[in-house]
Amino acid sequence: MKTLYFDNNATTRVAPEVLEAMLPYLKDFYGNPSSMHAFGGQVAVRVREAREQVAALLGAQPDEIVFTSCGTESDNAAIRSALLQAPEKRHIVTSRVEHPAVKALCADLALRGYRVTELPVDSEGRLDLDQYRKSLTPDTAIVSLMWANNETGVVFPVVEAAQIARERGVLFHTDAVQAVGKIPIDLSKTAIDMLSLSGHKLHAPKGIGALYLRRGTKFSPFLIGGHQEKGRRGGTENTPGIVALGKACELAAENLEIENTLVRRLRDRLENRILSLVPNTRVNGDRFNRLPNTTNISFEFVEGEAILLMMNEYGICASSGSACTSGSLQPSHVLRSMGVPYTMAHGSIRFSLSIYNTEEEVDFVLEKVPPIIETLRGLSPFWKENAKVCQKTG
Ligand code: PLP
Question: In which domain, by residue range, is 277 found?
Answer without folding.
Answer: 4-9+256-393
